From TrEMBL:
One of its GO terms (biological process) is RNA decapping. Pfam families: Metallophos. GO terms for cellular component: cytoplasm. This is Serine/threonine specific protein phosphatases domain-containing protein.
Length: 234
């Protein structure tokens, strides 16, 4: 595989002061109106509170550009999901473009070319990992999975930026695509509490209700498929 640009902002530490509350939301998938209605119910303070998205802002839903516009809001912070990754990879891989379109990404290819490029740039700028220190706790945010039981080691592996490593899945691929911990954690002893972080929040795998495995929380409750949109206060 030739060298391609998969972004340089892979691990981000949020350093701005959070004057209000910290929330995390599951996969939005173009459900902008649903999100805004939910925030109104929660009496979200747009001047003081912060909302973190665990990725997959786009695809399958109808309000994809509206969800992407949230990236520019000071009260919102997002990480990259596998659907943002598909937007990126489709620029150099026709098979990925076909797969992306099949899984709800066809809206992107109906846009003018210049606008498509803007979307890809937005996706490239999203980090794979986000870390936030708030109220004396360390919170981590990753889209799909973590296979290493050490937070600092996982961050270092992602920083290798070797998404297309030969013969094995890279930490970047695990972070964006994998489902091992949420599916097999109850009986696979390789999954233990992740040290170096208090809590980690994930989306990607649809669950009926938020589920906890060790100190890892999976919160994609399938809003775009008719399930509830999960927003948790941390």
């Amino acid at each position: 595989m030739r060298e391609v640009d998969l972004g340089s902002n892979l691990v981000e530490f949020y350093t701005k002061p959070i004057r209000g509350r910290l929330f995390v939301v599951g996969d939005l998938h173009g459900c902008y109106t649903l999100l805004m209605n939910k925030l109104e119910e929660l009496e979200f303070n747009f001047q003081q509170d912060l909302l973190v998205s665990v990725g997959d802002l786009v695809d399958r839903g109808q309000e994809n550009l509206e969800c992407l516009s949230l990236i520019n809001e000071p009260w919102f912070k997002a990480i990259r999901g596998n659907h943002e990754q598909m937007c990126i990879e489709a620029t150099f891989d026709n098979e990925m473009k076909e797969m992306h379109a099949y899984h709800g990404g066809d809206w992107l290819y109906k846009l003018p070319t210049v606008q498509q490029q803007i979307v890809v740039e937005q996706c490239l700028n999203l980090p794979i990992i986000l870390e936030i220190h708030h109220n004396n706790k360390v919170y981590g945010f990753v889209h799909a999975d973590i296979h290493i039981n050490d937070w600092d080691n996982f961050k270092q592996e992602v920083l290798k930026n070797n998404y297309f490593i030969e013969g094995e899945q890279s930490a970047m691929q695990i972070a964006l695509w994998h489902r091992g911990r949420v599916r097999f954690s109850t009986y696979n002893p390789i999954y233990k509490t992740v040290t170096g972080v208090d809590e980690i929040y994930f989306g990607h795998t649809v669950v009926k209700e938020p589920v906890k495995h060790q100190n890892c929380f999976f919160i994609d409750t399938g809003a775009v498929f008719g399930g509830p949109l999960t927003i948790l206060e941390l």
